[in-house]
Design goal:
This protein has 330 residues and is α+β, with helices and mostly antiparallel strands. It folds into 2 domains: 33-174, no CATH class; 186-328. Helix content is 23%, strand content 33%. The chain has 6 helices and 18 strands. It has helices at residues 2-27, 79-91, 100-113, 171-174, 222-234, 251-256, and strands at residues 48-52, 58-65, 68-71, 75-76, 93-96, 115-121, 124-134, 141-145, 152-155, 186-192, 198-204, 207-212, 215-219, 239-240, 261-267, 272-281, 296-305, 310-314. The strands form 2 sheets. The chain has a 9-stranded antiparallel sheet with strand order 4-3-2-1-6-7-8-9-5, with helices on both faces. Strands 13-12-11-10-15-16-17-18-14 form a 9-stranded antiparallel sheet. It starts with a helix and ends in a 16-residue tail after the last strand.
Amino acid sequence: MKIRWTHIGIALLLGGMAFLLIREIWSQKGIDQGLYDFAVGDTSAITRIVIWDKSPDTVVLTRTSGSQWLVNGTYIARHDAIEVILETLYRVRLRNFPQAAAQNTILTGMATYGKRVEVYQGDEQVKAFTVGTETPDMLGTYMLMEGYETPVATYLPGFNGYLSSRFFLREDLWRTRELWPSQDEIVTVSFLYPDAEHFALRKEGVEFSLTRGQEEGIQGDPMACQALIKGIRQVQYEGMIIPSDLAWAKQDSIAASKPVAQIAVQYTDGSSATLSLYPVPGGPDILDENGQPQEFDPDRFYGILSDGRFVLAQRYGLQHVLKSFEAFLP
């Protein structure tokens, strides 16, 4: 009897699923599928994504090769952000059709807050649509396909949330957060600690040598030196400082002050990239072990890079890079 009831339960479940599927098919019968066909089946063929709004702000994401993308034709893009938008374009699906009474309100919101998205494969535009606001339950996003007048609610299967935040426009948020984004082979890393020492590490094949003052050709510990190279390739900053941030107005005075450290990386093609770190002023919430306010934030630095970026970097993130001369000795 127990087995029979189990069989009956499974049959009812399968029957219910079949009913819902048939109802969905019939409900969409006669509806132009182009109205809600936002997904791109082959995201590996996408070469360019353009996002803009009426502010007007525009961001152009261009694939250069493989997984490498540029922001506005100049800056290396964040790999994780690119992966998110490509996943969204691949998986986005129709959630439901809004009630007719709500369509004017939805379209008005799109006209004010909507973001236009254009997707290209080569020179061909394969998708063009407007991303609007979220649905009242915050689990869907209104979108409007180019050439249509009816908005629809969309979602990602298995994801609870809205999608509009994935189509952002700020250039600094699209740019990679890697302090040294170049993929060229590193030849030399130079360290300058104004209050301590100045030394350099040079990579020659699989061997490393150190230079400090008049001392040259000092053998470096391979494991420690390799860890440094890996750390340089992986280290990222916390966030970019932009004109709307209070620290932006202090950039010149910060650059004129004494740095905590300066690190220069030179590559095989002769190019180089430098990072200068400066102390961040403390505040009433930054206390020492005695409960007294500290003059400087012990966990963060201002960073000025040779490519013009002004960033906030964490000491924790730099722990594998900010090393002393002795750390590289055998």
